[in-house]
Amino acid sequence: MGRQKLLLPMDGVSVVARTAWILAQVFSPLVLVIGSDGPRVKAEASGIPGLHVVQNPDWEEGMTGSLQRGLAGLRKQLETQPGGFFIHHGDMPFLSPALLKEISRAAAKDEDSPLFPRLRGSEPSLLGHPVYAPFRLEAKIHALKSGERIRDLLLKESYRIYETSDPAILEDLDTPEAYAALCRKYGLSGDFLP
After folding, report:
1. pTM score, two decimals?
2. Hey, what domains does the chain have and what are their CATH numbers?
3. CB 45 within 8 A of CB 17
């Protein structure tokens, strides 16, 4: 991308603030794991109700460590243990609270099984976010080594699929072109727009 994508502007707020605000409409507590440009990302997300920030000083080693730190941070915020938790990327700011509620209700039907959203009619292996993971897998998640993916761990379990027609479960901001195209698609202002 060439710059910190979580700090990109989107209709007057940053990508991370927009994503966190949408997630906070449905999920609490909410844990944001920061790495690159941590203080700036944290400042952008400040003020979101129920949001707790966890620093990952080893962020360059990959997402596994960030997930493990986020899970440890979530554990500290819980008064009681729910059946599981959701994993979502900060550069996926297009999901609606209504869709998040649908996915959450689907996960609640069997809290012991992982749940992946998939775009209706798409290739079976094309899975989106947020992903639901049961807390019974917490020790296995913490045992993952750098470079090992939680997705692979969850796919070894008896997982479920939630099908949706909303492509937002797959839409992230990995390139300037994706950022510009998605801002245009959703009618949002942004930096890289021609």
Report:
1. 0.92
2. 5-186 (3.90.550.10)
3. yes
